[in-house]
Amino acid sequence: MKLKINFLLFLFFISISSFGQVQDTVKYPKTYTAQKDVVYSKVGDWEGKLDIYHPIDSTKLSPLVINIHGGGWNHGSKEQQTGFGSFFKNEFAVANIEYRLVHQGKAPCAIEDIRCALLYLVNNAKSFHIDTSKIVIMGSSAGGHLALMAGLQNLHSKFDVNCISDQAFKILAIIDKYGITDLSSTNVLTSKSVKNWLGDENQNIEFIQSVSPLYNVNENSPATFIVHGNADTVVPYSQSEQLFNKLKNYNVKTEFITIENGGHGKFSKEDNKRINEAIWKFLDELGI
Predict the structure, then answer these.
(1) Whole-angstrom distance between the N-terminal and C-terminal Cα of the chain?
(2) pTM of the predicted model, to two decimals?
(3) What are phi and psi of 257, to 5 degrees?
(4) Is there a contact between 41 and 113 (Cβ–Cβ < 8 Å)?
């Protein structure tokens, strides 16, 4: 009996230890502070949470990158996102965002949440030492789609239904990694994940285009960096091609990195290094 109790205690402490590791997977410098599970919005019983990492030094404002996880709008979490080393090195504040998944809210709920998180960070910029004139929004896959949709909006957007801000801010750049850009495209609209997220609006072309980045581009759109593998079997490579061409047509600063034979993410170490170097060159040219 004593042996059994000791074994159960061992399992308990192991689970406590493992839980702590899951909650603290992002490695950040000693010059930074972290605030976890900050509630940026409440919709019914749902709480939108974010993790924010920013330099402790309050005498200098930091550029901000807002990171959005992927997962087909139906799964994924901010805890799965950990690779922010280059942003810390360049003294960015980093916000890692949760949003309503499809079982918590259909389209456009996730877009509304990302916009709400953005406005929360702008409203609290002083506390987080954020330079609101230098905001970057970044995401992969469904997170890329949401980064584009949030970043391509005006200061006051129709998606700002749960949060408001009278503060001025500027989306300096969007980093889109193989995100869907045109949900009305035939080779995308048949996707189960897309249909589920659109819900009852999955036949409403006007609505579908309103939540598609391709139809939100204009001459005032932020600089946009795009990366996509040309062998992606999840999100067609042509989605990024179309976005790139439309941005160019509006004379928006943009760069498109093609990963030869690359799939849906999971690029090689060499390709990831090339992408990272290209991103920082792109941001440097914007004056960050």
Answers:
(1) 63
(2) 0.91
(3) -100, 120
(4) yes
